[in-house]
Amino acid sequence: LNRYSNEPDNEPLRLTTEMLIVTLLDSEPDHGLSHALAAEFYMLQDDYTKAIELLHQTVHYMPQNEAAWRQLVQNYYIKGLHEDVIHYGEKANEQVPDDAFIHFFVGSAYFLLDNHTTAVKWLESASELPARSLFRSIILGTMGDIYATIDEWSKAVDAYESALEMNPENDVVLNNYAYYLSEREEQLDKAREMAVKALELSPDNAAFLDTMGWIYFKLEEYEKAHRYIRKSLETGDASAEVMEHMGDVYDKLGEPDKALYWWKKALDKDEERDHLKERLHIN
């Protein structure tokens, strides 16, 4: 399994490892570590459904196995099953309390379900628990996102600044902090510096390219805004917000037909963008 983790494209090695894993499970079906090893094998192949099944067996036989609980909660998060993240994260907290990793994922799941009050409680708890500085930066950055979302801006700034002290190259924090500054039309030069650094770290990230474009939009440099937002769209990973931003850029460039085209595409992708209906003259 260790060799396969280092040689994931080695098909003969994969088949041999799988054979050994199946044999181990057949011979030791009640042994928690057998299921843990098998779960690790399937996670290497991004088969999170199978990994979850095996991790449930692991924590059944080894309820104090902190690593297995972490992996179980993370796998549910990867699959976007946020209610399951919360359910099993809270169960994990009963068996292995005060784990920063588990608290982080439960808090993040509550955030994605728009339960901001509970999300803050779990993430504040995570930030106070022992963890490595790189992970603490991720926790604090997520707290910054929540505080920015609920318009507690001074707390958001404190969280973002602390996150960057922990890891000055946290590209997600650099981008999100820059984006919220642009939305607030504050410290746009600082926002641009952070966005540039985020793009140096992740040059093909659609969200980061959009942030750079949106900062230029706020600076009224519409040609530069168009260039970056177009690059974001060309990645194929652009959100409805990026499409809306492209419409806004074309509107400022005096091309109303193209603006309407992109606003329509944004609304088609995200029907909850009701404010676009007025621009599109839709009842």
Structure write-up:
By secondary structure, the protein is mostly helical. 77% of the residues lie in helices and 0% in strands. It has 17 helices and no strands. The protein has helices spanning 2-6, 11-27, 32-44, 48-61, 66-78, 82-95, 100-112, 116-128, 133-149, 153-166, 171-184, 188-201, 206-218, 222-234, 240-252, 256-269, 275-279. The chain starts with a helix and ends with a helix.
In short:
The protein has 17 helices and no strands.
Poorly predicted ranges (pLDDT <50, ≥5 residues)? none
SS-based class:
mainly alpha
Query: Ends: how far apart?
Result: 59 Å
Proportion of beta-strand residues: under 5%
Total number of strands: 0
Helicity range? over 70%
User: Number of helical segments?
Assistant: 17
Major sheet characteristics: none
Outline type: globular
Gyration radius (Cα, Å) is 22 Å
The H-and-E topology, N to C, reads as HHHHHHHHHHHHHHHHH
Helix and strand topology:
Blueprint: H1 2-6, H2 11-27, H3 32-44, H4 48-61, H5 66-78, H6 82-95, H7 100-112, H8 116-128, H9 133-149, H10 153-166, H11 171-184, H12 188-201, H13 206-218, H14 222-234, H15 240-252, H16 256-269, H17 275-279
